[in-house]
Amino acid sequence: MQKIRKSAPVVAMVLSVGLSGCALWQDEQKTDPSYPYLDSRQTEKVKVPQGKDTPQFGDEYDIPNVGANAESGELGAKLDISSPRLVLPVVTGSRILEGSREAIVQFDQVRDDVALDTAIWNSLISYLDERGIAVVDFDKSQQRLKTDWMIIEDDGDSPWYSWTKTDRKVGQRFEFTLDIKAHGRSATLYTKLVDYLETIDEKIVDEISEHQVRKNEVEVLNDVISHYEKQLTLADIRKARQVMTGLPMELGFDADGNAAYLVSASYDVTWPRLLLVLRKLGFNVKDLDQSTGLIFATYAGVDEGWWSSLFSSNNKLEIEQDDYRVVVKEQGEKTSLSLRDAEDNPLSASKISEMYPAFQQVMTTNDLDI
Question: Which domains does the chain have, with CATH numbers?
């Protein structure tokens, strides 16, 4: 098991803590010493008895001569045989760059309630804060963040028959860089290991292989992506609950001075709620554009049996069965709903007031079904 602790000075990692384990952490990625080929040795050439013809040997499998600058010694047991870590783009609208060896992930904007770069940085800072990891430097204008030391204690649950004890701590610092496209709706997050320090008993290690560097970068990046996905899921759940909960509404005026309904909720909550309300009131939505806040709908009336059981006849919409437009705009902490006819003319203040009881009744109803 690995534990990520709060940031601490580097000197704290030199302190030893007794941890149990059947083998050193890095040895788990090396070749199993029981593999027979590790004991293989160069075989001698075939000895041809006197008086016999020497067979012809092919040279296609000959091992070339070792160069003068080649590393000497046996390397088989030291080779890293672990599979490469893969970036897991589990967030909606995220993807990887095929063929890239860097620890990076791309995000596309799928929600309009907050800028993409702000959403990514907020999630990353939240991830670090939950794990008690300090931020050394954050410059949003440069889209760069550097963490303090992330201290990892490896205390894997060892089997009962293991008597090996190893004191080990690992400290890492990462730098995250965000590359935002000019249109602001796509971004690439880069993760880079900038500092590494490891203590094993009395030994201090400050260098690791390129393969291990990428492994550590990808593991942290996947944690960040997973945290981001979790936050988006929770936000969707909270938003769904708000949409299903009745929203307070009052008569007022929109930004153009026309009579309108003012809903005490944010735009991104009011919009999906309004679609339910329009359907309940007997409107059939033909077209809509959330980015501009425009809805084209036709009023067809409601089912008399259903409506009479919920409202009095005075609360029915006394309007022609015709095409209408609904304009939705953010207005301070509230959201305005303006109704217009098919020619884009605002409905009169008296008509808006006459329709208000029915709109207000449905908008404020809890657990409004689809």
Answer: 2-27+83-239 (3.30.530.50), 249-363 (3.30.310.170)
